[in-house]
Amino acid sequence: MENLRKYFNFEGTANRSEYWAVYLVTIGLMFPVMFVAGLLSMLGGLLGVLLSTAVLVFVSVSLIIVYTATTVKRCRDAGISPLFAL
Question: pTM for the full model?
């Protein structure tokens, strides 16, 4: 659990391999989640649409926070202003 918290933390630095690993995991998770949410919304009627929307919002917000935190840390590590990430 402690290892997972560092990805939601905006303090510190991130090396290149950590940045690219987060990037690839983000891309790798979004496509299957979007596919499953699409199937759920097609097959589940109104409840499926609501459930798939909730899942997409939760996963998207979580991944955006993780990716932004890692980008801010990487900018800091590279000597660039962290505001560049925004």
Answer: 0.78
